[in-house]
Design brief:
heterodimer; A: 372 residues; mainly beta; four-stranded antiparallel beta sheet; 27 strands; 2% helix; 41% strand; B: alpha+beta; five-stranded mixed beta sheet; two-stranded antiparallel ribbon; 3 helices; 7 strands
Amino acid sequence: MTETGSPRDSEVLLLVGTMKGAFIFRSDASRKEWSVEGPHFRGESVYSLFHDVRGGRNRTFAAATSPHWGGTLRTSDDLGSTWSEPDQHTVRFPEDSGLALAQIWQVAPGAESEPDVLYCGVEPAALFKSTDGGDSWHPVDGLLHHEQRPKWMPGAGGLCLHTIITDPDNAKRMLIAISAAGVYRTDDGGHTWAPRNVGVRAEFLPDKYPEFGQCVHKVVHHPSNPQRLFLQNHWGLYRSDDWGENWQDIANGVPSDFGFAMAMHPHRQDTVYIVPLESDMFRCTPEAKMRVYRTSDAGGSWEPLTNGLPQSDAYETVLRDCLATDSLEKAGVYVGTRSGKLFGSSDEGATWSEIAGNLPPIVCVKTAVIKK
Amino acid sequence: MITIELPRALGAHVNGATSLHVEAPDLTVREALAELGRQSPFALDRVMNEKGEIRQHVNLFVDDENIRFIDGLDSHVSDGSTLFILAAISGG
């Protein structure tokens, strides 16, 4: 999310990654009418998009993976009119690591105090850092050489580092999530990382509460209360109030505690959105109803948001990065499905409409608010 | 002389050419790819990953033989032969 200027001066970007390329939707602050450009990178899957306005940039990042030619982190400084095409992949493992990039799963900004810092989470699980606004990247060695790495096991999507959370008050603290290794936190700028999974269930292991090995699907937090984290697990919804030291179950009143996606309200630290799915064996919306759930009390209770969403024959799957909010005062909420439907709400989830209905399978939805 | 045939997607980054000619009587595939990399780092980076392996969905043939079934990167490309770089069947 990015926030700049007043709503009248603002344009909302809705960055949608699919299995066949990226689409950029644009609207004014009313978010009633959307224009669309794309697909960019035809035939390539785009699992991560990010628009960066820090440090005077107006740069869009797209992690595009060709089934043939590998994964490339591309950038555009003109909202997708042109894209970089580096001779050599900029995100690449050192030769002596014995690893090769399979896919970039997340591009995320560094702490507020470091406007030129960005991070990439990749598969096989590793974290890359850029200190020059995304021109060059190097792996974070403390995680690359982590002693527990040999015991990390991949989930269905591969051994991917998909979530990156920074501390707005402390640039040396970060939290990442790996499927299926769980949550790890560093307090020393990435030199050392400790698993932070106490209380998080690993239903698929003999030991249901191991030190690490959990299949965490997404973690979010609000910068105004950074130590409070919300976690959507492979079975289980959790909250931590102490930067991941302990987690407590908050699956209170949801039709399923299985799901992938989770998004934070931009202004309310206790408001979170999820899309529950029926079981890890089915992975579709329960009762064939497309329902986004919202808590406004930090997980004490959850309410379904359904007005404008299909409530019959909706066998939808929503993946981990396919739920997003924008940063306007009345927050927009967006959800993309594996069947290529893109829904949006300009009133925090009270009402919804279909923005697009026939996209390729959607694997990522991100937003930015920029000056017109 | 040996010839390296490139798919169109990569040829666009080798001065638009889909064929390269290398003046050599005999090269291994590895040596031929190194020559490709000198002429187009872009193309080589798309064919091989950072471990120096041919990407999973790229096939290399010396004339009509898939190098996976001969000597891999140590297969020989002889004078007059062609190294074909092809996008394999993949996707959905």
